[in-house]
Inverse folding.
């Protein structure tokens, strides 16, 4: 994962950063490749965060991601039930199967990044 993260950051320095210490700096997407290993924690879907108003890790549509208007604190223990009633469970297709992650080489090829061996 580290070579792919570094190559993506090299190809798109204004958009992607490789995590070195603190993450989520500025407007870049931070690729923390070190989290992709044994005994690392990631936020599960619908996980509550221990912060004021209890924000919830919420699956988004691609349209929401592309619009860039959703903030992490938008979805809370108070607001999420209404979203699920209105939009349904956005994570249900993943649980029901038929989802897979593309190989890193395919992703790199799709965004025009040449992978090193």
């Amino acid at each position: 994962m580290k070579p792919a993260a570094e190559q993506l950051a090299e190809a798109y320095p204004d958009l992607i950063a490789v995590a070195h210490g603190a993450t989520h700096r500025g407007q870049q997407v931070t690729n923390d490749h070190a989290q992709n290993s044994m005994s690392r924690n990631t936020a599960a879907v619908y996980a509550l965060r221990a912060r004021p108003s209890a924000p919830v890790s919420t699956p988004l549509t691609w349209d929401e991601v592309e619009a860039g208007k959703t903030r992490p604190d938008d979805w809370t223990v108070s607001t999420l039930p209404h979203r699920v009633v209105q939009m349904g469970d956005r994570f249900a297709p993943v649980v029901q199967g038929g989802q897979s992650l593309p190989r890193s080489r395919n992703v790199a090829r799709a965004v025009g990044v040449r992978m090193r061996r």
User: Anything to note?
Assistant: The CA atoms of residues 17 and 26 lie 10 Å apart. The helical segments are 2-11, 62-67, 80-87, 92-95, 104-110. The first strand starts at residue 16 and ends at 18. The beta strands are 16-18, 29-31.
